[in-house]
Amino acid sequence: MSHFVNMEVFSNYQKYIDNEQELRENIRIVVREIEHLAKEATIQLQVIHCDLTKIDAACSSARKQIEACAEKYQKLAALVPPGQYYRYSDHWTYITQRLIFLIALVIYLEAGFLVTRETAAEMLGLKTKHSDGFHLDIEDYLLGILLLASELSRFATNSVTMGDYERPLNISHFIGDLNTGFRLLNMKNDGLRKRFDALKYDVKKIEEVVYDVSIRGLSNSAESKEQPKVESAE
């Protein structure tokens, strides 16, 4: 009796499916390791909301976790076949955005400026060009930076509670510049645009904190006597 279907073809399909599942499981294992390190860094940095004297120590501890993440990304890069970054990128997109946020927070706390994509990529051991292989996607960088705004709005409020009345003004200037920068972008990505919409609320929240400090006469800064125009460049 002749066979109209070659069963060997299905055997080959099964091998492909098995190899694909194994690869994805190996990727998930490494991603979970990165997530654990990011969680540890997040826990270390939460101290900024209750004790300003421990900021430097928290940043130092978080940096160690971030450095360990760089080794894990190298393992990911070795697992992903050449030219197939976006085929598997859904596994690590969210945690990469989270790490960009943590890096940006550390850099802001240490130096007061916005980390560049190049510096963030270097800290994670990633490339910046798609053609170079495993890289830091621009949208992942931008989404991570937008996460920073929400954390700083919370930090501004808690700083006042801890008696630091100058810090909210500095945060207001920083977030205002960030807001202006994002307004220069033509955001066609729905996720990015929605996250940017949340930035507007963070700006308003920080503005209200600064204004409250100003009218109560709690700040020694002459600039804080006026309500900051965080959206003046609109």
UniProtKB/TrEMBL annotation:
It comes from the Eukaryota. One of its GO terms (molecular function) is protein homodimerization activity. The keyword RNA-binding applies. CDD domains: Translin. One of its GO terms (cellular component) is nucleus. It is found in: Cytoplasm; Nucleus. Keywords: Cytoplasm, DNA-binding, Endonuclease, Hydrolase, Magnesium, Membrane, Metal-binding, Nuclease, Nucleus, RNA-binding, Transmembrane, Transmembrane helix. Pfam families: Translin (PF01997). Mg(2+) binds at E151. InterPro entries: Translin (IPR033956), Translin_C (IPR016069), Translin_fam (IPR002848), Translin_N (IPR016068), Translin_sf (IPR036081). GO terms for biological process: behavioral response to starvation; negative regulation of circadian sleep/wake cycle, sleep; protein stabilization; regulatory ncRNA-mediated post-transcriptional gene silencing; RNA metabolic process. The chain crosses the membrane at residues 95-115. The keyword RNA-binding applies. Ring-shaped heterooctamer of six TSN and two TSNAX subunits, DNA/RNA binding occurs inside the ring. Exhibits both single-stranded and double-stranded endoribonuclease activity. May act as an activator of RNA-induced silencing complex (RISC) by facilitating endonucleolytic cleavage of the siRNA passenger strand. DNA-binding protein that specifically recognizes consensus sequences at the breakpoint junctions in chromosomal translocations, mostly involving immunoglobulin (Ig)/T-cell receptor gene segments. Seems to recognize single-stranded DNA ends generated by staggered breaks occurring at recombination hot spots. Belongs to the translin family. PANTHER family: TRANSLIN AND TRANSLIN ASSOCIATED PROTEIN X. This is Translin.
